[in-house]
Amino acid sequence: MAKVKLTSEEIARIEELAKGWGKIIVRRHWGEQGPGLDVDLNEMEEVAMAAVRALLAGTLEAATAQQADQLGSERACPDCGRVCPLQRAPRPIVVRTGSTFDHDEPKAHCPACRRDFFPSASGPEGEHARV
Ligand SMILES: [Zn+2]
């Protein structure tokens, strides 16, 4: 599958959206008045980093789950071609920040070949999802 690079306009739109969520997090965490004068920048950064990690995990979990939904309920074995039912298996994936998200990975088992295979919407049959 060809790599599609985000345009600068798309990146700007995503950043603007996430900045808005930052304001929501401040309001939800510290209330309508915002942080008191006793809250230092270090503590603010801790809150922001917790939000960044959760935003990353939530985005990747939603995106990969929607890709998996597009695969349907059956897939042909890449070795023998037998159509096998697709199931989901949880697999924690470490991303570039070092944090983890819970990938609900599509997985099939071919009883004829006695092997598992992992179709993905973004890669050829038999490979793990490219995340
Ligand atoms: Zn097979």
Can you describe what's shown?
The structure is a single chain. By secondary structure, the chain is α+β, with helices and mostly antiparallel strands. It has a domain at 40-117. 40% of the residues lie in helices and 22% in strands. The chain has a four-stranded antiparallel sheet. The two termini are 14 Å apart. Mean pLDDT is 89; it is low at 122-127. Residues 77, 79-80, 82, 110, 112-113 line the site of zinc ion. Zinc ion (ZN) binds at residues 77, 79-80, 82, 110, 112-113.
The level of helicity is 25-40%
Structural class from helices and strands? alpha+beta
- Quaternary state reads single chain
Strand order of the largest sheet: 1-2-3-4
**Total of helices:** 2
Itemize the secondary structure elements and their pairings.
Elements: H1 8-30, H2 41-69, E1 74-76, E2 83-94, E3 100-110, E4 115-117
Antiparallel strand pairs: 1-2, 2-3, 3-4
The protein binds zinc ion (ZN).
